[in-house]
TrEMBL record:
Belongs to the sigma-70 factor family. ECF subfamily. Residues 2-62 form the RNA polymerase sigma-70 region domain. It comes from Saccharothrix longispora. This is RNA polymerase sigma-70 factor (ECF subfamily). Pfam families: Sigma70_r2, Sigma70_r4_2.
Length: 278
């Protein structure tokens, strides 16, 4: 149950550390509440408590993120030890997490709790401090924003794997021609460096610009660094590693058989300190 609760909190706040803090705080409140009067449905109580606390954290975080240097991307959940992994619904891709950042805290909470975790509107209304009717309107607006902003992944599994492997081989091999064959005409690359010098502070648009940016990153890799495929938020991605140390992580979003988004996280606080990969 704890992993599911962390998944709820992560979907709302966008970072694993804050999500874990939210769950720990809510768990203590659960223990205190149960001591006063036994809680009949522990999981339902905990989900509501986590959501309420996460909303408070999200509202506070939005102020900090508005002052962030360059684009702010969610913390990637990278496939490593399953015991330590955040449990994510398959619909919460990295690209979707990026889109959720554009919603208000109330819209995001409503969308996540209703669309992903199936909470009814009256329960959500109590969490966000609105009426059920107002929450329904929040859901409509949030659904429209998400539909407009999140690429629809509609490729078959075999095509998905082929595009991903072609993309990674082209980047690793410095092959611009091959890379251009899998980049969507509207591809966009965003990098989050948290103010680190040398990281693009604005999104890069178009196949040629994105392709050259990626190959420039590849050329700057130091001796001993390697590019490896990883799973990011349940989808394809890559990491640049020095031994077991992660230098940065990239999430790849595919739509229509091509790469539509590349999101690169360089900010050290958002990277797994150690990542065991083959």
């Amino acid at each position: 149950m704890r992993q599911r609760l962390v998944g709820v909190a992560y979907s709302l706040v966008g970072t694993v550390a804050e999500a874990q803090d939210v769950v720990s705080d809510s768990w203590l409140r659960l223990v205190e509440a149960d001591a006063r009067e036994p809680v009949r449905d522990v999981e339902a109580w905990a989900v509501v408590a986590v959501a309420r606390r996460a909303v408070d954290v999200l509202r506070s975080a939005r102020v900090r993120r508005e002052e962030y240097v360059g684009p702010w991307l969610p913390e990637p959940v990278v496939d490593a030890d399953p015991a330590d992994r955040v449990t994510l619904d398959e619909s919460v891709s990295f690209a979707l997490m990026v889109v959720l950042e554009t919603l208000t805290p109330a819209e995001r909470t409503t969308w996540v709790l209703h669309e992903v975790f199936g909470l009814p509107f009256p329960e959500i209304a109590a969490i966000v401090g609105r009426t059920p009717a107002a929450v329904r309107q929040l859901a409509v607006r949030a659904r429209a924003h998400v539909s407009a902003g999140a690429p629809r992944v509609d490729v078959a599994t075999a095509e998905h794997r082929h595009t991903t492997s072609t993309f990674l081989r082209a980047v690793a091999g410095g092959d611009l021609s091959a890379l251009l064959t899998v980049l969507d005409p509207d591809v966009v690359l965003t990098s989050d460096g948290g103010g680190i010098l040398g990281v693009a502070r604005r999104p890069v648009h178009g196949p040629d610009h994105v392709g050259r940016f990626l190959l420039g990153v590849r050329r700057k890799m130091a001796q001993g660094e390697r590019l490896v495929p990883v799973v990011v938020n349940g989808g394809p991605g890559f990491a640049v590693m020095t031994g077991a140390t992660t230098r940065f992580v990239g999430a790849v979003t595919l739509a229509g058989g091509r790469v539509r988004r590349v999101d690169i996280v360089v900010a050290p606080a958002k990277l797994p300190p150690v990542l065991e990969v083959d």
